[in-house]
Structure formats: structure tokens, C-alpha cells
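Now read the record:
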Amino acid sequence: MGDEKTPRDMGDVMEAAVANLKQRTGRTLDEWVQVVMESGIDPHDLKAVRRWLKDEHGAMVNTRWHLAEAAAKAAGWKRPSVEAFIDQQFAGSKQGMRPLLDRLRAVIEDLGDDVAVQGRGGYTPFVRARQFAAVSATRSRLDVGLRYTDPPDSDLLVPSKGPGMGTHELTLERPEQISEQVEELLEVAYQQNG
């Protein structure tokens, strides 16, 4: 597996995937969108469309994601902004974790001008040349996935089960847990993914 693409490269990846779609799958993007529309699945339910494309057509991961988004857009869906994704993640029972995310986000964004925050449905990724941190929430904690090429020795880190592309993770329950040690762990992940 190669490195994760930077945001500026994602348009190129999409264009290449669409250009090769007919050759790889036997259908153009427009033909696939029509197939999805005729399937009876709600095109706004991107997860269901991706699952259907996998189960019924054996579509590969990137193809599923591109086709599901194209079908949803054809049905009037608009990709939410990063802030809208974050607002959705921290609604309802997870609302109490929002101040902790906001504090952590400020620390992460202060690592450098090249830190980009991206929107995802289930977690918030932070990207430099590659994703170096990702945050997901429960009602009582934040799980922070950190990506290392050479992990630092720390009692705070455990092997990652997610979120994002982390090799390790740590758990935060209160803003005061964002200690110097946590800031150093974030800094190392940032440096190793530049």
C-alpha cells in the first residue's frame, strides 16, 4: 500500500479512477450512476450504496467510494463541509466531548501551517503529507489515532484499532489530560508524516 494522498492530489486520483472506469469495470461513470439509481437503494445512503456495489458487483474500495459519491451528487447530495462533519460527529450523546476536541484540535493545528483538517463520517483526520492523527468520540472519551514510522516509547500509547490510519492510539477524557507528553506524541507523529 502506498502513502495516503494529500488533499491536492485527490482530484488527480479521482480523475484517473474515472478515466479508467470503463476499462476496469465495463461501465462509464454515468452508466454506473444509472445502475445505482435503478437499484432501489437510496443514493443518499452512501454506506448502503458502497456495500451494495461490493456485494452485488465486487467493486473495489476506491471504485465503491467514487461511485457512491457520484450517485449521491447526481441525486442532489452535497458533500458536507469539514465543520459540518465535525458537528455531526459531536451531536447528541457525544456533545460533551466537543470542548475536548476543540482544545485538542487547537494543539494539533498549532504544530504547523501545513496541517489540514478533513471531514469524515466517523472521525476527524489531521493530515500533513499523510494523515498523522485522527480523532473519534464516544460519550465519555476521545480516541486519538497517531501514525508513526518510528513510535516513541510512552505508557500512553497502545497499538491502534482505529480511528484513521494510526499505528498507535491514546485515550483522552478531559482537557487537562492534554499534557506536555501528549503534545510531544502529537509532535512526533506530525514530524514523521511530513
Q: What stands out?
A: Residues 82-192 form one domain. The longest strand covers residues 131-137. The beta strands are 116-117, 124-127, 131-137, 142-146, 158-159, 168-172. The two ends are 18 Å apart (CA to CA).
